[in-house]
Amino acid sequence: MMAKQAEIMVITPHPDDAEFGVSGTVARWVSEGKDVIYVVCTNGDKGTSDPNIKPNELARIREQEQRAAAKLLGVRDVIFLGYPDQTLEDTPEFRKEIVRLIRIYRPEIVVTADPYRRYIWHRDHRITGQVVLDAVFPYSRDFLAYPDLLEEDLQPHKVSEVLLWASEDPNYRSDITDTFDIKIAALRCHKSQIEDNLPPDWEDRLRQWFRSLAEGEDFELAEAFHRAEVQWRSAPPKK
Ligand SMILES: [Zn+2]
C-alpha cells in the first residue's frame, strides 16, 4: 500500500472529542499548510439522552456532524473505525488497526486523549489513549511486530511526539487565540451533543476555560496538552 504522508494524526474516541480537545490547534496547523488526518474510533451511538432516537440513526447523525466539523477545520481526511460507543477494549486487533494507520500516514505528531486521568473518565477515552500510546511505541516502530504489514509494504514508522488532551499533567500550551472562533464553529457542528449536554452559555464558559489555560503565557487563549517526545534509540535526544 502506498504511504499517504500527513504531518498530524488526531485519534479521537468519539465524534466531537477532538473538537473539544484540539480543534483550535488543528485550525492553526492547517493554516500553516500542514496535513491533518482524523481517526474516529467509535460511532458515538450511545451519546444521547433522547429515548426515541435509534442508535444507528444517532451514529449516522454523528458521522455527518464529525465530517462537517472536520471540513470546516480543513482536516484532509476522516477515517471512521466504527466501533460501537462504550465498547472499546485494549485488544491486539484494535492496536493493529492504529499501527496500520500510523504506518500508512506516517505522522510526525499523534494527538489523542490522555488515558491517565484519575477516577471518573470515559472508558473509551482511557482505552483509546492507552492503545494509541502502545501503537506509537513500540508497535509502529518495530520491524518484527507485524510481518504481515511488511508484506503489504507498510514499513515501520517513528512518530516524533504525542500530544494528549484533557491531561491532569499538562506541560505544553498551544496558542489558539486566532483560531478560537473556528473552534467554536466546529463545536457547533456537533449539534446533537451541544443540545444534549451543554448549558446555554457554553461558548462564554469555554472562552473562560481556554483563557485560564493560557495563564502565564504571552497569548490569550490556549489548548493544553501533556506533550511526550518519543526518544528513539538510534537518534540522540533533542536539545
Ligand atoms: Zn468522548
Spatial order of the strands in the main sheet? 3-2-1-4-5-7-6
Assign a percent range to the helix content.
Answer: 40-55%
The SSE string, one letter per element, is EHHEHEHEHHEEHHHE
Give the biggest beta sheet.
7 strands, mixed
Strand content: 15-25%
Structural class: alpha/beta
**Morphology:** globular
Uncertain regions: pLDDT < 50 for 5+ in a row? none
Q: Alpha-carbon distance between the termini?
A: 35 Å
Describe the structure concisely.
The chain has 239 residues and is of the alpha/beta class.
What does this structure look like?
This protein has 239 residues and is α/β, with parallel strands linked by helices. It is built from nine helices and seven strands, in the order βααβαβαβααββαααβ. It has helices at residues 17-21, 23-31, 55-73, 92-105, 123-139, 147-151, 180-188, 191-197, 202-213; strands at residues 8-12, 36-42, 77-83, 109-113, 161-165, 172-175, 222-229. Strands 3-2-1-4-5-7-6 form a seven-stranded mixed β-sheet, sandwiched between helices. α3 links the parallel β2 (36-42) and β3. The chain is globular. It starts with 7 loop residues before the first strand and ends in a 10-residue tail after the last strand. The model has no long low-confidence stretch (mean pLDDT 95). It binds zinc ion.
